[in-house]
Amino acid sequence: MARALIVIDMQTDFCPGGALAVAGGDEIVAPINRLMAGFDAVVLTQDWHPADHASFATNHPGATPFSLTDMPYGPQVLWPPHCVIGTPGAGFHPGLDLSRADLVIRKGFRRQIDSYSAFFENDHATPTGLAGYLRERGLSDLSFAGLAHDFCVAWSAVDAARLGFSATVIEGATRAIDLNGSRDRARAEMREAGVILE
Ligand code: VGL
Ligand code: ZN
Q1: What is the Å distance from ligand 1's center to 89 Cα?
Q2: 35, 88, 101, 193: which sits with the fewest CB atoms below 10 Å from its CB?
Q3: Which residues face 56 on adjacent strands?
Q4: What is the pTM of this model?
């Protein structure tokens, strides 16, 4: 059973000083680099939004960042603009070891729909192609690290478990946004889906 480390959104905008900074986000760069050696494959995800993306509060007149809106696919948090295609903030944290990355998978590039999960856009139906890639390579045992614990990491791990992969979240190599209790909620949802929290 081959094992892959899936590193979620370790990008400049999610680290202190970035547009959607997660507290302590930069503290997990070195631990993630060390973890890479223990896996058969490393996959990186990259949040990658056009400037007019529907998940940006600035594209909804009068909306405040971190408020909720209704999208055709369900409720959606409106974020400060972040990880805009081609900007420095969308780049990987400069300390992240890119040499072991077999695949970089971008997500969130369609204007009308956000994509927290590495596997599906937020409609839970449009695939990113990652499941097929992992299956073709026989990578069935997945561990997750990166940002943010309670959004993109949790959604990715839950989808992985539902798709039949073995899914573990290495919590020490994640940091949470923790918006209105989202961290505890994410933990409960992950356990419910069969994700191992390590
Ligand atoms: C993320 C909010 C918006 C994440 C991405 O990586 O967790 N969160 N886009
Ligand atoms: Zn995003």
Answers
A1: 13
A2: 88
A3: 79
A4: 0.98
